[in-house]
Amino acid sequence: MDRLVINRKKVLNSFAEYTSNYNISDSKIKLKAEHTYRVAGLCDRIARSLELSACDTDLAWLIGILHDVGRFEQIKRFGTFSDADSIDHAHYAVNILFDNGKLADYLEDDNPGVRCYIENGGMEGLSIIKKAIWNHSAYRIEDGLDERTILFCNIIRDADKLDIFKVVNDTPLEDMYNVNTEDIPKTEISDEVMQALREKHAVLRSLKKTPADYMAAYIALVFELVFPESFIIAKEQGYLDNLMDFKTDNQNTKLQFQEIREIVGEYIHTFPHVHG
Asked: Which residues does residue 108 pair with via DSSP β-bridges, in sequence order?
C-alpha cells in the first residue's frame, strides 16, 4: 500500500456506522456524537487559519472525527465520562483504531477524485493520527515528538477544548459527573485548583474534588489554547463567559469566581489578536 486516502464522505459514513452500534437515545452517546462533528469542524477551521495544505487540513479534520471513538464504549461499559473511574478514553480510541484495525474502515487505498493522500505507505500520517489522538486529552503532550506531530496534537487539543466550553455550558454537571443537583451551588473551589487558575495553567484531574472544582478546571482550559484562531473562536462562542458566571449560594465561591473572571480577562487581554 503506497498511500492512504482521506475521503471525507467515506469517513463520515464510517463514523455513522460505528456510532450506530450504540444507543443514540442515550443522552451521553448523542452528546459525544454531536461533539465529534463540531470538533472536526473546529479542526478544519484552525487548520485553514494556519494556511495548511488541503491534505493537512483534511488530516486535521480526520483526527477530529476519530479523537473520541473510545468514548462510546466507555459510556456503554461504565456509564461515565470520568477516565479516572473507568478507562482512558484517548488511549482506548488508539486501541480501537490501531490495535483492533478499525482505522482501515475510514481510509481508502486509492481514489483519484480525492484531494488528500498520505504518502509512503501512510506511515507518517498514521503516526500523526495515533499520537494526536493518544495525547488529545492529556495534561501535557508527551515528550520527544517532532514539530509536525506536535502541530496536529495542538490542533485537536485546541478544538476539543473549544467544544468542551460548549458542552459544559449546555450540559448540567449532574448529568456529566453524576453529582447531586443540590450539592452544586454549595461547594467551593479547592485551594489547589484555585492555585492552578492563579498560575494560569490547566488543572490536574487528581485535584478536582467538588462540582465547583470541575467548573473552574473547565475554565482553566483557556490557558492551554495555542493558536490565535482558537482565541477568536472562544470569544465568538461566549461560552467561557457563561461558565465564569457560576451560580452559587456560597459567598466564598462567589468571590472565587469573581477572581477567576479577573484572571481570565487579564489573560485574554494579553492576546491582541482577539481585539478589534
From this structure: 5
| Residue 138 near residue 160 (C-beta atoms within 8 A) | no
Which of 86, 78, 36 minimizes the C-alpha distance to 61?
36
pTM > 0.85: yes or no: yes
The residue to which cell 479523537 is assigned: 67
CB 131 within 8 A of CB 12: no
Most trustworthy range by pLDDT among 74-78, 169-173, 179-183: 74-78
Cα separations in angstroms, 158 against 28, 57, 195: 22, 15, 23
What's 210's DSSP letter?
S
Residue-level pLDDT at 34: 96
- For helices 8-19 and 54-66, the axis angle rounded to 10 degrees is 0
Alpha-carbon distance 58 to 115, whole Å?
9
Neighbouring CB atoms inside 10 A of 227's CB total: 19
In angstroms, rounded to a whole number, what is the distance separating the alpha carbons of residues 38 and 41?
Answer: 5
Phi, psi of 116, rounded to the nearest 5 degrees:
-115, 120
Question: In terms of residues, how long is the chain?
Answer: 276
Query: For residue 128, what are the CA distances in angstroms to 20, 118, 214, 226, 235?
Result: 27, 11, 30, 18, 29
What does the block give as the cell for 28? 451521553
Compute the C-alpha angle 192/205/212, nearest 5°. 60
Q: 92 pLDDT exceeds 70?
A: yes
